[in-house]
Specification:
- By secondary structure, the protein is α/β, with parallel strands linked by helices.
- It has eleven helices and nine strands.
- α4 links the parallel β4 and β5.
- α7 crosses α8, α8 crosses α11 and α9 crosses α11.
- The longest helix has 24 residues.
- InterPro entries: G_SEPTIN_dom, P-loop_NTPase, Septin.
Amino acid sequence: MSEIVPPEVRPKPVVPAKPSHVAPHSSGPFVPSPQGTGGEGRGSALLGYIGIDTIIEQMRKKTMKTGFDFNIMVVGQSGLGKSTLVNTLFKSQVSRRTTSWSRDEKIPKTVEIKSVSHVIEEGGVKMKLTVIDTPGFGDQINNENCWEPISKYINEQYEKFLKEEVNIARKKRIPDTRVHCCLYFISPTGHSLRQLDIEFMKHLSRVVNIIPVIAKSDTLTLDEKTEFKQRVRKELEACGIECYPQKEFDEDMEDKSDNDKIREAMPFAVVGSDKEYQVNGKRVLGRKTAWGVVEVENPNHCEFSLLRDFMIRSHLQDLKEVTHNIHYETYRAKRFCSYAPFNPLWNWSSSLVAQPLQIRKSLSPSLALLTLVSEFALDNPFQL
C-alpha cells in the first residue's frame, strides 16, 4: 500500500504595498458587499492594496493620447451672431466667419453646409473641434423645407460612420464627423417662435441634440426676456418638441435634478462678443452700448456662462454619448430594417407599434427601445 503524501505547504503570497504616487483613500480599505445567493459572487475583505483605483488614471492617459472630437452645428438667420458666439464659447477664432455679410457678398440662394476644423488644447487636453455653419438658412422669402439640406447632412454623417463600422477590416479609430450638438438661434423678437423655428426643431430634434438660444438678448428688457423665454417653452411643449437634455434620458435622480434646472433655464438668452473692455479695473468680454458695457460672462447680464458651463463643462461627454447611443443607434437600426422590410422582425415590430400605450409601457427596456426604433422607421420609411 502506497504512502499518503501530505499536501505541499505553499507560502502565503506577499501583498504589494500601495504605490507612493497613489493618494490614500480616506474611507479606509474597501470591503466588497456580499452578492447573489449561496455564496456565489460573494466578496471578502481585501488583504492589502491591489490597484483597481488606478484604472481611472489609465483611462485618462489613454484618452489624453488619442484626444477628443466635438462637432457643433450652428443654425439660424444671418446677423444673429452665430460665429461670434461660437468664438466666445471657445475663446478663439474657431468659426468659419468672424464678420457679417459684406455688401459685395451675395446671400446664398439655398442652404449651404460649410465646416471648419481646429485642434484646440487646454491643460494638456487636445480636442478637434469642428464648427458646421449653415449660411442661407431662413434668409429667403420662401423658406419651405429649408431644413432638409441640414437633415440630409446629419444623416450623411451617420451613414459615413456606419459604413466604416461594418467594414470587415475597419479602422482602429473611426473618424467621427457626426453632429454632437446643434445650437439653434432664435431671433429676439419678444413675441413668439416663427413657424420656421417650430418646423425645424420638430424635424431635427429626432436626429440631433438641439439646444435653443435667444440671440442678442441684450436687445430685450429683463421683463421682455423673461416673458419671451416662458412663451418659447410653452410653444415647444405644445408642439411636442423636446430639446436636449430629454427627460427620458435622465439616468437617475441626480441627473434628473441637474437636468431639470437646465430645462427650466432654456432657451438660454445669450450675448456673444470677442472684444474686451475695461470694467471696474478688469478686462472683460462685452458689448459696448451708450448705457454701458454688457458683460458676456456676467450672469446678471445674460446667460452665456450658463450655456458654456452646461455645454462644455458638464454635458459635453453626455452630448457625445446621446448622439452615439440614441440618435446614431436609431439611424443604424432603421437602416438595417430598410434592407428587409418584410422579414418577421419587421412584421412583429410593426404590429407592436400598433398596440395600446399601456401594453407598450409594460415592455422590458430592450423591447421598448426596439419599439421606439420601429415607430421612427414606420413614420419615415426609407427616408435616409
